């Protein structure tokens, strides 16, 4: 033990049962404990082992036999999620990087969209993705430019051409039929 009498600005504090803290005294002598020089390597090894022991995680992994989830009960409203999630995973796996959709030229896409809306006035996003084979985000951007989304009514959840495009189509059709 090493004792030092240097000025050490330390005090002893105590806390009462009411939660108030008070100064109990000052420290005048400081004692430091060091291992003997011959045991310093053993002490260093002990410190390293102690540090490593507390740094390792005590989590354990157990493999549970597949019992079909007998002990697990689904939360209310969670029954259909499992089947829809697995269906989505199958779709994603089937798609793969080799089957990625490529964007067409925007002018070409406009023509295709106009032709589709000539056949049928209202389309859902899924139907348009299937018909055009375009990436969803690109198709959404095109739909924002050309179409109106129906939130209510009989055609809820579908897109239809904006009125200005419908009129221009009708006029161009009328001009083509009169010129023939």
Automatic annotation (TrEMBL):
Region (Disordered): 82-107, 157-180
Keyword Signal attributed: no
One Gene Ontology cellular component annotation held by this UniProt entry: transcription factor TFIIF complex
Skewed-composition ranges (Basic and acidic residues): 87-107, 161-173
Cell inner membrane keyword on record: no
Subcellular location: Nucleus
Domain TFIIF beta subunit HTH intervals: 103-166
Keywords: DNA-binding, Nucleus, Transcription, Transcription regulation
GO MF: DNA binding
Biological processes, Gene Ontology terms: transcription initiation at RNA polymerase II promoter
Family label: Belongs to the TFIIF beta subunit family.
Protein name: TFIIF beta subunit HTH domain-containing protein
């Amino acid at each position: 033990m090493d004792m030092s009498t240097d000025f050490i600005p330390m005090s002893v504090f105590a806390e009462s049962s009411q939660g108030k803290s008070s100064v109990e005294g000052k420290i005048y002598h400081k004692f430091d404990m060091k291992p003997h020089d011959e045991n310093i390597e053993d002490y260093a090894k002990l410190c390293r082992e102690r540090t490593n022991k507390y740094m390792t995680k005590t989590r354990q992994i157990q493999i549970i036999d597949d019992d079909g989830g007998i002990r697990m009960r689904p939360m209310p409203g969670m029954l259909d999620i499992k089947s829809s999630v697995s269906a989505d995973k199958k779709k994603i796996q089937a798609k793969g990087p080799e089957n990625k959709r490529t964007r067409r030229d925007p002018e070409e896409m406009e023509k295709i969209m106009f032709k589709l809306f000539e056949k049928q006035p209202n389309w859902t996003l899924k139907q348009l993705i299937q018909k055009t084979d375009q990436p969803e985000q690109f198709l959404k951007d095109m739909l924002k430019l050309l179409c109106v989304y129906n939130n209510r009514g009989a055609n809820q959840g579908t897109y239809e051409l904006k009125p200005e495009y419908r009129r221009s189509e009708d006029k161009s059709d009328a001009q083509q039929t009169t010129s023939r």
